[in-house]
UniProtKB/TrEMBL annotation:
GO biological process: protein stabilization
Protein name: Periplasmic chaperone for outer membrane proteins Skp
Keywords: Signal
UniProt family annotation: Belongs to the Skp family.
Pfam families assigned to the protein according to its UniProt record, in alphabetical order: OmpH (PF03938)
Gene3D superfamilies assigned: Skp domain
Amino acid sequence: MMNKPFAHLTKITLGLILAATTVACNNNPSKTPASKSGNDSAATVSGGDKIVYVNSDSLLANYAYFKDMQAKLQEKAKKTQGELQAKGNAFQREVADYQKNAATMSAEQRQSTEERLARKQEELGKFNQNANQAFASDEAQEQEKLYNKVSDYLKTHAKDKGYKFVLTYAKGNPGVLFADESLEITKEVVDGLNADYKKEKK
């Protein structure tokens, strides 16, 4: 029995994307303490460097580009799965026909049919493998696009806001053990990403 590919699409997260994002916003560190209210809330370290964080779970849940990307991958997986299922069902029908008629076949006919079915089974296995590899490649490319979009946006956004470090927080895989909610900038990042994506789609 062939394994069904794409039974579970890989959950794409931004943990690695954001965890290592360190942004220098200007050449001279600000000496001004960070405000404790609004979007300017930020922790400071020596030299006035500002540290903020993004909740990657919330970002992905609200980023329109990510939703469209997931939908596109799921549609592609569904189509490929349908092709594999159709080929698999056709092969199973051929096997069933052979088993039904084998008793009335000559030894030569049985051998020829079995060899043909063996070749088809091998071809089907290769098709299955190639389909999985092609999907994995497509998914990797989409993840790279997502990485670039978020990373590029954060570099510009952090520079504009004066943030020196942008950390990430995810409930299942936290890169930060504790983060004060006043330091979270997820909404402003999501709003900015969605605004940019909306312009791209026009």
